[in-house]
Specification:
This protein is an alpha/beta fold and 231 residues long. It has helices at residues 7-18, 45-51, 63-75, 90-102, 143-155, 176-185, 202-213; strands spanning 26-27, 35-36, 39-42, 56-59, 80-83, 106-108, 114-117, 121-124, 133-140, 160-165, 191-197, 218-223.
């Protein structure tokens, strides 16, 4: 957990631990040697990597330092980076997306709620009480919409294999199409739910892929009735 000693980092770390996530270390430059909820804190990701084996990093680093922290995390050879930070400079986002792609790291975000596999683990901010284990895979631009639809399904007795909220954009690391592609190949997912918002072409890209390649049922909700005129 990057920025584990900050307010958001501490709150979300506790929630992730409660959800079953195996968190082995935190990183905040200058705070090495401390502990948060019993988790050791290091100054650098490379330092944490020397002492612990981990394959995912979640970042709560503020916008000004987010790019450097992402590059540091990717350099550690992780497979998943969840970037929750909002309002990053677009140039920084472009660089981080390219760097992650070049190094084989799946980047979810920026500005996202992350990923949850109900009753197993979560790397993100999804409230566990809205979800239950099952066989529906959800991908959403909006974190709040993924919460709402997860709760709606759960209340109806329909559980989820996993839920990923990729962020509102305008630039994404992990896309709706990429999520659909993985769900289509996932033996634990029988039905795919695609939640989108108007603006951009990512829903169209996902739809074209679904039409050409996906045989599992896909249900989609695209929201945006109250968007600005002309959007």
């Amino acid at each position: 957990v990057q920025a584990i000693t900050g307010k958001s980092g501490q709150i979300q770390t506790k929630a992730m631990l409660d959800a079953g996530t195996k968190i082995v270390s935190g990183v905040t430059p200058g705070k090495g040697g401390q502990e948060v909820l019993g988790i050791p804190v290091y100054n650098y990701v490379s330092e944490a990597k020397q002492h612990h084996d981990f394959d995912a990093v979640i970042s709560f680093v503020p916008p000004a330092g987010a790019k450097d922290s992402c590059i540091e995390a990717i350099d550690a050879g992780i497979s998943l980076l969840v970037l929750t930070t909002e309002e990053m400079a677009l140039q920084d986002v472009v660089e981080v997306i390219a760097y992650a792609k070049a190094h084989g790291t799946t980047l979810v975000g920026p500005g996202c709620a992350g990923v949850i596999a109900p009753s197993i683990s979560k790397v993100g901010a999804h409230p566990v009480r809205f979800f239950r284990p099952g066989r529906v895979g959800i991908v959403s631009k909006s974190g709040a919409l993924s919460y709402e639809i997860g709760k709606t399904l759960s209340d109806a007795g329909i559980g989820q294999s996993s839920v990923v909220a990729i962020g509102g954009g305008p630039l994404w690391g992990f896309t709706q199409r990429a999520a659909v592609e993985r769900y289509a190949q996932d033996p634990d997912t029988d039905v795919i739910v695609l939640l989108g918002e108007i603006g951009g072409s990512s829903e169209e890209d996902a739809a074209a892929y679904i039409k050409a390649h996906v045989t599992k049922p896909v249900v989609s909700l695209i929201v945006g009735r109250h968007a600005p005129a002309g959007k």
